[in-house]
Amino acid sequence: MFTERLPDFIEASSRLTTRLRTEVQEIAFATCGKGGERLGDKLGMPISDASLLWSLFLVPLPEVGQVRVIGVDDWSWRRGKRFGSILVNLETHKIVALLADREAESVRQWLAAHPEVDAVSRDRGGTYIDGATWGAPQATQVADRWHILSNLGDAVEEFLIRAQIRLEDERASSKECQKPDKPLSSFSATPASQRKSQAHLLRKWKLYQRVQELHAAGMSLRKIGEELGLARNTVRKYFRQAPVFSKNR
To answer: Residue 19 and residue 84: Cα distance in Å, rounded?
Structure first.
């Protein structure tokens, strides 16, 4: 059948009018599949959760346009399974592209198609450094604030732990101690991170005790490493230095 198109009322091959499609998409954006299905029934717009979510694929994407400052980082299509790259226009704070992987070649191709890019904000990993260098040699590369603060926090915590480590005057007293009297120190800011640091330091304390016991039994550092599955430098560190105790603050 041939009929006159009515683009202002309904799109070709669509089962919903343009106005109804827009309302359904607004519900889908504001809720979820099942929640939107229940809300649609109450509003007199019965629709399945699958159709509701599928309508989001019909939303036209805005043109990328000119992008001068771009931010790139990895993100998860499926957590722990599949990762991609996300590119954000840092002047408008809007997503401009989702790449299928987090390879340097994919980033290079996207940046090569946008020669107007003047600055690239990325993490300190080699993948995005190479992608930005090959795809946008004219752009200035900077490490983004979040990764700088995260790396700084990790470095400060490691330094504080190392700086507080002291060998006791009498080696025998450390061997007799089976469990620290006080909780191991933690410099994490949040309770969750603090518990994680406590557990990490407790594991280090147990390794230290085991290294001391095996060495006292006459085992060499190389044999201790083979026994515990540790590198020789790690065994040497636990032999020379004891874990840090927390001080009253």
So the answer is: 35
In the chain, CATH 3.30.420.10 sits at 69-143
CA distance 162 to 156: 10
Q: Which helix (H) or strand (E) holds 52?
A: helix 49-54
pLDDT of amino acid 194: 58
What torsion, rounded to 10 degrees, do the Cα atoms 90, 92, 94, 99 define? Answer: -40
State pLDDT tens for residues 166-205.
545 555 555 555 555 545 454 455 555 555 666 777 777 8
Contact 88, 96 (CB under 8 A): yes
Contact 11, 18 (CB under 8 A): yes
Q: Which of 126, 192, 201 is nearest to 158 (CA)?
A: 201
Q: At 71, give phi and psi (nearest 5°).
A: -115, 135
Q: Which CATH superfamily is domain 69-143 in?
A: Ribonuclease H-like superfamily/Ribonuclease H (3.30.420.10)
- Picking from 241, 184, 186, the residue whose alpha carbon sits closest to that of residue 209 is 241
Helix (H, G, I), strand (E, B) or coil at 64: coil
* CA 116/CA 133 separation, integer angstroms: 14
The pLDDT assigned to 199 comes to: 72
Other Cβ atoms less than 10 A from the Cβ of 42: the count is: 8
SS3 assignment, position 96: strand
Residues of the chain with pLDDT under 70: 1-2, 164-198, 241-249
pTM higher than 0.85 for the full model? no
Determine the Cα–Cα distance for residues 21 and 12; give it in Å rounded to an integer. Answer: 13
